[in-house]
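Memo to structure team: turn this sequence into structure tokens by end of day. - J.P.
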Amino acid sequence: MSLKVYYDLLSQPSRAVVLFLLANDIPYEAREINVLHGEQFSEEFAKLNPMKKVPVIKDGDFTLTESVAILRYLCRERDVPDHWYPADSKKQARVDEYLEWQHTNTRSNCALYFLNKFMLPAIKGTQPNPETVARRERKMVATLNEVEEIWLRNKTYLAGDKISIADLLGACEIEQTRMAGYNPCDGRPKLAAWLERVRCDTLPHYDTVHALVRKVTEKYGGVPPASFSKL
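Reply from structure team:
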């Protein structure tokens, strides 16, 4: 098997890549990297990705980092349905439009809320800083409202009427907020319906890659534990 995938399902971009592979029956060799244990900082992993982040793929002798680049590459290199990343220039541009926007919006704001409200306090054994959390929550709420009111205003999916890699990346980022005790669907019926569509379109794999998210959400209820070294 030539395709190796280095990932941690605690990582939103990792989940998107693994979900895409599973949903399209693409064979791969799983190489799990435990981020909580700092395995991404090992000398061996740094040779694959000097940025020391997951996910990473190694396709034969070709190594690639960054989830958006990985998903675009897999759409080109593997035999997958066109709707994931359409060949049509205008349809592809709609997918790219969201992918460019999400870096400083869905990706940044959901992740920073999760990190400050839950992850960093759990790792450091401290309480969340209320002012920082409130600031991050305001930015995240604004982003989620834009998903509801703009991206899903007159579309079934983020980039059109069919699921694409944009939806996988968006859904995985938004699901992350649940571990910090936030329900992104409250007051957002379009977003809630869209998340369920993405889930149903990719079952059972959506539930598989989000099993850890559900476990942490149910176990801690959004309250950072004293120790987060074991899940």
